[in-house]
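thread: overnight batch results

M.L. [08:02]
morning all. the overnight job finished for the chain we discussed friday. pasting input first so we're all looking at the same thing
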Amino acid sequence: MPHEKNAAPGAATRRHFLAGAVAATAAGAATAQSFEFKPQQRYPDPSVQVLDPQFAKYRIYSSSVEQIATGMRWAEGPVWFGDGRYLLVSDIPNNRIMRWDEATGAWGVFRQPSNFSNGLARDRQGRLLTCEHLTRRITRTEYDGSITVLADGYNGKRFNSPNDIICSKDGAVWFTDPPFGIAGHWEGEKAAPELPHGVYRIDPGGAKLSQVLGDLAGANGLCFSPDEKVLYIVEGRHQPHRVVWAYDVGPGGRLSGKRLHIDAGGPGALDGIKCDEFGNLWCGWGSNGAVGANPADLDGVMVFNPEGKAIGHIRLPERCANLCFGGAKNNRLFMASSHSIYALYVEARGAV
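M.L. [08:03]
and the structure it wrote out:
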């Protein structure tokens, strides 16, 4: 991988990374099953389901779900780079970050190995922020391709496996740290957790790391409301169902006023979430694996209004783990869904 500042001893060099990337690209981008997708011919696309009349204004009548790439094992953490017109997405078990080019449709390896990266985001200067499972840390890719380690532990203990990440308008970096990546050898390396399932904040200057929450079971996706006065966080191991909590954000990132915003109310697997300019939450959705659950009825993206009411369901043939807004007008929804990436133009833009 690229040369690292403050990297662990024995880390691979930039030369090794480039050689690996070229070899992977030469062998072909797909190292998992690729799946054919038959798009809907009819408008409006019946896959875009209006659950409440409120959602109708966000559905574009002549826009349909498209599969833009496939061939991954578990797609996660998409992030849009508008200045380069490309999308990055983590393919966690394949230990790589993939890149889809909007201008050409090219699909290939951006970084391999990726240290089993999961969540991806951009900071306020446009640099790539990465949650790495294998190294259990948060990194930033600099303009020259070198990598800076922003944080790899708290109070002398290693993180579990940083999962999802966002950057607020003031430059602070927020991320969740559940144990999913150390639970086995599929998304990292099996290890014992050293810290509670936490939510952390790196201050805008990067000098201070704070644990803002330590009481959630499997803290997962997170995002801000458009005005950044509310932080939404998915509790992925909440019982009996997965939920989204809402918190008021105070000075210095202090959180208060915890309240239930969304209850999956069944086997729906809330995962990554994004907020649009109107305060709606667009949530990765699918089955949580419960006995009797029917994934075909659940897979896709669920949309909830600012009051937490389900108003829309974008049905996909695969479970959607995470999503982001992008495109020239920030109104194209990219959905990282198990093996594939799907896209849909909507009449709403991402809040960030």
